[in-house]
Specification:
10 strands; 7 helices; alpha/beta; 222 residues; six-stranded mixed sheet; Rossmann fold; four-stranded antiparallel sheet
Length: 222
């Protein structure tokens, strides 16, 4: 079953001007349920642009992107915001945790926006903190966490609304090798539980740990 499908996706910046950039050029791609994929390529290859488009953060210039059976090009901005909240989990290079909240509260927050009852939110948030092996750090503020711990909280937060796919953009990029290894082990365990995970990385050692590698060059899938 396809979780994400791209059909002839183009993304052109500054079209029709001397500064025109064809960041994506006719990309066709399928991501199936349970995939653990890395998208790799040199700087300027289009991998981050592709991530933005297939995660619904940006719209392609033309072509079709279908996520969980829905053509997201037909959604308006409010519908896209709801779609992202309910269907997609994000992990970025920087954890972007809210400093004034505890780790547990950061994980709970997406469920607050979804409108889940407090008892359900707290139970799920605690379960997710255990899943990322941080049950002893639930009451810690972000400033009290290491970089690796913060990133694992960010992964738990990404799982809060049970997304159909998790997109991780250089999730180990700011971490030392030990912390990066811990983060990758968590992602592998999630994938073993049939979570679909897509990682953007320039690091071959990270790509080699995924089940599939998609290589990009000059806006095209190689």
């Amino acid at each position: 079953m396809d979780v994400v499908r791209c059909e002839n996706v183009w993304k052109v910046f500054n079209p029709g001007t001397p500064a025109e950039v064809k960041a994506l050029q006719g990309v066709n791609l399928k991501i199936e349920k349970g995939d653990f994929i890395s998208i790799m390529g040199p700087s300027g290859s289009g991998k981050s642009t592709l991530l933005n488009c297939i995660s619904s953060l940006d719209k392609p210039t033309r072509g079709k992107i279908i996520i969980d059976g829905e053509d997201i090009s037909k959604l308006d901005e409010n519908e896209l915001a709801d779609f992202r909240r309910n269907k997609i989990g994000f992990v970025f290079q920087v954890s972007n945790l809210i400093p004034s909240l505890t780790a547990l509260q950061n994980v709970e927050l997406p469920m607050v926006f979804k409108g889940l009852p407090q008892e359900e939110r707290m139970k799920r948030a605690k379960d997710l903190m255990k899943k990322v092996e941080l049950e002893k750090r639930m009451d810690s503020k972000p400033s009290q966490l290491s970089g690796g711990e913060s990133q694992r909280v960010a992964i738990a937060r990404a799982l809060a609304n049970d997304p159909v796919v998790i997109f991780a953009d250089e999730p180990t990029g700011n971490l030392d090798s030990k912390s990066g290894k811990n983060v990758m082990e968590i992602l592998k365990k999630l994938n073993a539980d049939n979570k679909t995970i897509v990682i953007i990385t320039h690091d071959k050692s990270i790509g080699d740990q995924t089940n599939k590698i998609i290589k990009m060059y000059d806006g095209k899938v190689c």
